[in-house]
Amino acid sequence: MTTNHFFYKSMLWLLLIAAFSVQLISVYFLSLQNIEYALLFHLGSACLFPYSLWKLMPKKFENERSITLLLFLICALIPFVSGIGLLVCFTLSAYFSKTTTVDVIENIHMEALPDDILENLKLSQYNGSSLQAILDMSDSEDNRMQAVLKTRQMSDQEAIPILKRALLDPVDEVRLLAYSMLDKKEKFIDTLIRSYSQNLGEKSSKEDSIIHFKLAECYWELSYLGLVQGKAQTHVLNNAYKHIQTTLKETIDNAEAYFLQARIALVLDLFKVAEKSLSHALLGGMSKTRIAPYQAELAFMTRDFDQVSHHVKAVDENTKKNAVVAEMLEQWA
Questions:
Q1: Would you kindly state where each structural domain of the chain is located, as residue ranges?
Q2: Residue 55: which region, alpha, beta or left (left: phi > 0; alpha: psi -120 to 50)?
Q3: Which of 44, 140, 232, 317 has its CA 20 to 30 A from that of 201?
C-alpha cells in the first residue's frame, strides 16, 4: 500500500470518527433537552457522514456522486442509528461482493480481439456490417475513426448508412469526421445541380433534354442516398420528377429515363405512372432481370400479391446479392 493511499484511507476513517463524535455530542444535548443544539449537531454529523460512506461503497458506485445526497437524507432523517447502520451494511457488502467477484473472474477466460481487426476487414465480404459493428461495439476511438475513414473506399450507397451511424458517436472528432464526409457528398451533388441548371436554355432542345435527365438523376441521388429527409426529400423528389418528365417529352424512346421515372414514381406513390414507365422501359430494350425487382415492389404496393412471386422469379443472381432484394426473395421466392 502506498503512502498516499494509506493517508487517504486514514483521512476517511478520521472523518467517520469525527461524524460519530459530533453525533454523540448531539445525543448529549438531547439528554439535556436542549433541542436546538441537538438538532444542530445532528445535522453537522449528517454532513460529515456521506462522503466517507460513499467511498466505502462498492466500486460500481464510484462515479455516482449524486448518491451522497441520498446518504445525507438518510443520515438526517434517521437520527443516531443511520450512520452506524450504513457503515455496517457497506462493510458487509464490500466483503461479500469481493469474494463473489474473485470466484466469477477466475472462471471466465476473455479472448482478446486481434490488433489488426481493421486490416482483416479488407478480406471480409460483409465490409459494411463489420464497420457498423466496430462503430457500435468498439471502445477504441481510433478504431471508430478508421472505420469512418474506410467508407471512402465504398460506394455512396454502402457508406452513407455507416456515416449516419457515426453521427451518433459519443466522441466529437468521430461525429465531425462523419458529418464532414456526408456534407462533402451532398455539396458535390449540389455543385452538379447548379452547374447543370446554369446550362439549361443555352443549347438545343435535345441537349437540354440530356441536362434535364442529369438533373433528375442528381435530385434522385440526394433522396436515394438519404442525404435529405422529410419535406426536403419530398421537394427534391418532386424536382426529379419534373425534370424526368421534361426529358421524356423530348426523347420518348429513352428506356433509362422511363426506368428512372418509375423509381421516382414508386417513392411518390404514383403507382399508375410507375407501371407505365416500367412497361416503356421494358419495351425500350431494358432487361427484364433489371426491372423485375421494381415490378415486384409495385405489385406488392398495389396488393397484387400473385404478381409479386411471378416477378421475383425473374431477378438475376447479381441482383439477389442486394440486401433489400435478398429479404424480399426470402419472403416471396
A1: 3-106, 113-185
A2: alpha
A3: 232
